[in-house]
Structure prediction request, 565 residues.
Amino acid sequence: MARPVKPMQQAPLQPLVKARRGPSMVWIIPALTLVIGLWLVVKTITEQGPEITIMFHTAEGIEAGKTPIKYKDVKIGVVKSVRFGEGFDHVILTAQFDPEAEVFLHRDTRFWVVRPRLSLRGASGLGTLVSGSYIEIDPGHGSPQYHFIGMNEAPVVKSDSDGVRITLLSEKLGSLDMGSPVYYQGIQVGEVLGYQLANDSHSVFVHAFIRAPFDELVHGNSHFWNVSGIDVSMGANGVHLRTPSLQSIVFGGIAFDSQKSVDSPDEDVSALVYTLYANYDEIIANAYTRKLRFVVFFNSSVRGLEKGAPVEFKGIKVGEVADVRLEFDSSDNSFRIPVVLEIEPERIVDRSQTADEEAYRTLKSLVEQGLRAQLQTGSLLTGKLFVALDMHPDTPLHLTEQASNVLPEIPSIAGGFDQITDSLQSILAKLDKVETDKIGKELELTLHGANMLVNAPELNQSMQDLRVSLSSFRHIVEALDKHADPMAANLEQALASGQKTLEQAEKTLGHLNQTLDPSSPMQYRMNQLSRDLSDMARAIRSFVDLLERHPNAVIFGKPGAGEQR
Prediction:
């Protein structure tokens, strides 16, 4: 069997590969994607705001990615993360700001958390009850800064407030606190920003802020004083009670005055340190800078006399007591009480005298003319004493001749109570000399005799006889009273007739006087008779008037003054 013949096989075709110049179109899309991604990254980085860190003691109310940062209630950033700091005693917040907010980040920029707060000064942050807590910023000045320490409370005054900051120096803080008001004429014009202990550890610096336009009232010679709480003082002038506004009682407060003169230069008061006085009386006390010291020795007790007690001259304060002490003299084993007085000569001496020696000479001359010191009670309620200076030219000049007296001496005299005490002691001494036992015995005998006389039976019998006599006399008076009116009428008619007769006799005598010689004895006798008749007529007229008013006067006589019958 023959094999079939196979057809002739052809070789396979090979592809024709040609090398292409340039990049492949396949890489266009990845490359484009890479470029767009890089562009987005660069754009995001360039448009991203600054990132800062803020340190707080606690993260209360703060949530990462949610808590915003605001300035004037406009959001300018957000908290990105919250982490603990070293030692776990504080937290550090990382916050992202908008690019345009970078101008707020400076050295003095302040941050604080706004959350609901309720205190005696009122409520704040109530809006965060709905929206949640947020961080508020107060832009500062200076070099750029990106690490900050947050505040525990909101600042009293923000950086955009117009005014002036002042510094006060006080011995103690008292009731003052951050936010305490500052007053001018009772108007609140500022607040206390804070306080700190001074370097000497014995005083306190108080920082305050005065808002515009009231900052123009603060000058270099202005005075500041504390008006916190209720000021109650008891001294020689009595009890003083000062009650400022209710707000200053609760929160404390500071007041100041404005004393700028016309020729006083403008000055930067923010660089000055003012003294904060405890009250306004201290300002008045420090107004007189010149003080002269004198010493007074009192023989009586100085109980109630304290340092700072006023020294008055005719009721006007001229100084105060600087020191009260007890000294012992070992040479004669005696005690003495020197009281040092500080006299302000500007009150009583001509202000043109600038030398203290001249003031001492003037007061020495007053002492020679009778200037004396007395202890007087300023208030019976407190029992405090004060020193009263007055002129007593009739008192002798007695000075304590002591070599240790380094101060000029003003002589003293006994005060009002001392004089009363001396008088009482003198009276008691005289009474002590009286023989009271002898007087008592004689008085006892006298009372015994009076008792025997009163209780004697003869006196009782006399009283009974007198009672019977008075009863009989009463019957007689009643009988006479019935006939008094007719008798008085007849007597009145008789007196009237007699009066007419006397009048006719006077007329007759008048005719005779005209006819007689004035120098004759008969004329003299006739004049004398005329005067006697005139006196008789007046007497009769008075008697008639008496009978008209009191008809029973014929029986009982003329009634006494104020007596009615």
In short: The longest strand covers residues 74-84. Residues 163-285 form one domain. The chain has four domains: 47-149, 163-285, 292-421, 457-556. The chain has a mean pLDDT of 75.
